[in-house]
Structures are given as structure tokens and as C-alpha cells.
Write a structure and sequence with these properties.
Order of helices and strands: EHEHEHEHEHEHEHEEHEHHHH
Strand content: 15-25%
Structural class: alpha/beta
Shape: elongated
Mean pLDDT: 92
InterPro entries: 4pyrrol_Mease, 4pyrrol_Methylase_sf, 4pyrrole_Mease_sub1, 4pyrrole_Mease_sub2, rRNA_ssu_MeTfrase_I
GO molecular function, one term: methyltransferase activity
Strand order of the largest sheet: 3-2-4-1-5
Distance between the termini: 77 Å
Pfam families: TP_methylase
Low-confidence stretches: none
Organism: Biomphalaria pfeifferi (Bloodfluke planorb)
Largest sheet: 5 strands, parallel
Protein name: 16S rRNA (Cytidine(1402)-2-O)-methyltransferase
Helix content: 40-55%
Length: 279
């Protein structure tokens, strides 16, 4: 009988976020594959877990995957953990998952913390549609190119970033994406957890003048102007939109102003169209 590969999420800062199921799983597997055995040993010691630890990181991922495949074929179970958070989210484990699937072993997710998800829900930015892009490239030219690729995505953008690059990344984001609403979330679930909210320009200035430390998640709002225009195209007429705003309590002047903005028109253009539609 083939063994089972468990992908076990661990806390991203606060040890109390470890789930009962995660502890139980790690206590019962034959082997725990981890990025840094010294780091994971602190976790296993805290929870009284005695399973053998084996290093599994980006530099030995391919060879380890083959080894783990043979262990699974012997019917033994393996848990994969990252230093923090959920395995495979910007962390190694893809190769061993592929190998497990290839040999027909069972692959089970033991859910828990994911940094960008927790940062997103406290950011105050829309969560209905989300794009996660991992770490932005370290070089400005490559970073700008990547931002151009995601510029038109109609979703909240989420990225990981490092303290020494965040100010430059924010500047590039402003230049490529425009001055969108954003949030910089650092040290989520940890003692010095902090959420900085504002426009990309404001955040660039603030962090350039007062550098920050810790693990960082960057949350960027979608292009509101584009979204408004897209929504407006789905509406029949300027007159109908003005009537909708008026029904919400806006006076005619402000209702027309808001409708003009949604349709990407000047107020005078919107007024002329509104008059022709009313006729």
C-alpha cells in the first residue's frame, strides 16, 4: 500500500495559530520534510513532535522528490512543511507533489495560514477577485515589465516583497499602475504587525522616509477608473444612470457628475447626451 504525502501549513508568526489537525498529522507521519531543520525543530519541540526531520528546499528539491517517491512506494507517510505558512505558496513542494501523483500516492492538504490571504482581509481593499503574483522581480526593469503584464487584470493584486526593496517597488507600481489605493502589511500575526494604508504615492513617500522591517505583503487595488468605465458600458444610457443616482439621494447636478465619471466623459458631454436621451 502506498504512503500518503501531507502538505501541512504551519504558523506564519504566532505559534497559537497551529491547528490541532496539523499537530496530530506531524506526530503520526514517518518523516517531516522541511526547508530548515533547525527552524522546524523549534516548532516540533514546542508541540512535542518527534518525527524525523529531513531538509527539503529549492536547492535539493528534485533529488529529494525522487527519494520521497521511493519512501512513499514503501508505504510510509511524509509531511512537507515550509518555514512558515502553506507549502507550495512561494515555497518548495511542487516537485514532490508531482512525484507523489505520478506514482499514485495520496496527496492531502492540511490547511492553515497563508500570509497574503491574511494580509488581504485586513487591508480594506476588495476581496471579491484576487490575483496573487508571489514575489515581484528584484530588478526594476523586470519588475516594471511584470507590472505591465498584470496592469489590466480586474482584480486586487497581491505580492510578497522584502524590506530593502519595498520603497523602490512602490515607486515602480505607481509609475506603471497609476496612483491606486494600496496597503503594505508587515509582520502579519506577529508582535509588530502593522498595516499601512493609502495611495501608492503616499506609501512610497512614507516608507522612503521611514523604512520598515519584517515580512511584507503588498496589496494593490484594481484600476477603479477602468472598472467604472467597464461597469458603465453595461448600462443602457446616461439618463438611466443619472436616474439611478438620483434615486439613491444625489441631487441632479451630482448625479450627472457621477454618471459622467463612470462613462469617462466630461460633465458638458454627459449633459448633452443626457438631454438627447431625455428627448
Amino acid at each position: 500500500m502506498l504512503g500518503t504525502l501531507y502538505l501541512v501549513a504551519t504558523p506564519i508568526g504566532n505559534l497559537q495559530d497551529m491547528t490541532f489537525r496539523a499537530v496530530e498529522t506531524l506526530k503520526n507521519v514517518d518523516l517531516i520534510a522541511c526547508e530548515d531543520t533547525r527552524h522546524t525543530r523549534k516548532l516540533t519541540t514546542h508541540f512535542g513532535i518527534s518525527a524525523k526531520l529531513v531538509s527539503y528546499h529549492e536547492h535539493n528539491e528534485t533529488t529529494r522528490a525522487e527519494e520521497f517517491g521511493r519512501i512513499l512506494l514503501d508505504g510510509k507517510s511524509i509531511a512537507v512543511v515550509s518555514d512558515a505558512g502553506t507549502p507550495a505558496i512561494c515555497d518548495p513542494s511542487f516537485a514532490v507533489v508531482q512525484k507523489a501523483i505520478e506514482i499514485g500516492a495520496n496527496v492531502v492538504s492540511i490547511p492553515g495560514a497563508v500570509a497574503f490571504v491574511n494580509a488581504l482581509i485586513v487591508s480594506g481593499i476588495a476581496t471579491d477577485s484576487v490575483f496573487f503574483g508571489g514575489f515581484l522581480p528584484s530588478k526594476s526593469s523586470e519588475r516594471s515589465k511584470r507590472l505591465e503584464e498584470v496592469k489590466t487584470i480586474s482584480a486586487t493584486l497581491c505580492f510578497y516583497e522584502t524590506p530593502h526593496r519595498i520603497a523602490k517597488s512602490l515607486a515602480d507600481c505607481t509609475k506603471v499602475l497609476g496612483n491606486r489605493k494600496a496597503a503594505v502589511v508587515r509582520e502579519i500575526t506577529k508582535l509588530h504587525e502593522e498595516v499601512l494604508r493609502g495611495s501608492l504615492e503616499e506609501l512610497t513617500k512614507r516608507i522612503s522616509e521611514n523604512p520598515i522591517k519584517g515580512e511584507i505583503v503588498l496589496i494593490i487595488d484594481r484600476d477603479e477608473e477602468k472598472t467604472c468605465k467597464s461597469e458603465a458600458k453595461n448600462r443602457s444610457t446616461i439618463a438611466e444612470r443619472v436616474a439611478e443616482f438620483e434615486s439613491e439621494g444625489f441631487d441632479h447636478k451630482n448625479a450627472l457628475k457621477k454618471a459622467a465619471k463612470e462613462f469617462g466623459l466630461s460633465k458638458s458631454e454627459a449633459y448633452r447626451i443626457w438631454q438627447s436621451e431625455k428627448k
